[in-house]
Amino acid sequence: MSIIKKSFATVITFTFFVCLSATASAQKSKPNTGEMPMNQQYELSRKAAKLPSGPDFYIEPVAGPILQFSILLTDNNNRSVPGTFIRPQIEILEDLLLASKAFALNEEEVGTASQPKITRFMDKHEKAFIIDVQKAGDKSHFFLTVESLFGRLTIDAGVIKRGVKKPGEAEEPEPLFYKIITRVQEARNAALTLPQGQ
Q: Residue 183 and residue 185: Cα distance in Å, rounded?
């Protein structure tokens, strides 16, 4: 009976010391919260990088046994669709982008402000990419649709003004559509330097 009491007393003493050392350790490692003045917290949050918002398009080549391109399309509501595409698909996308840009700059199929005309550019064998060009007056408006295994999304890719700029007229910002063309071409060129067959 005394052996059981001694064992029980040893277990209780051991448990007490374990709890005591855990409490001391927790107090030492307790984070310093609330000690930064509010003005410093505000300054840090003001300088912090803001998350991107609005429509955007990202593309990057990915090395592997088959060269692929990773694409991320994001719209105004911060919805996004990722996708992975092979080189022939990206070549089709580039052709569609260049053809729709050339069309947007000419005076074919122009509607009015009340009845704009929309022309669709797509490949009959490749359904992953669709570009719509809406023309009304002297403006051409671009819409890009991407479909992947993860869904389908259409973004507003910007507007350009056709014709010669008048003297004193402000320079318009480059539309996202033109940036997309540049990014696709840069990704295709970057892919040439990636090792193949890894």
A: 5
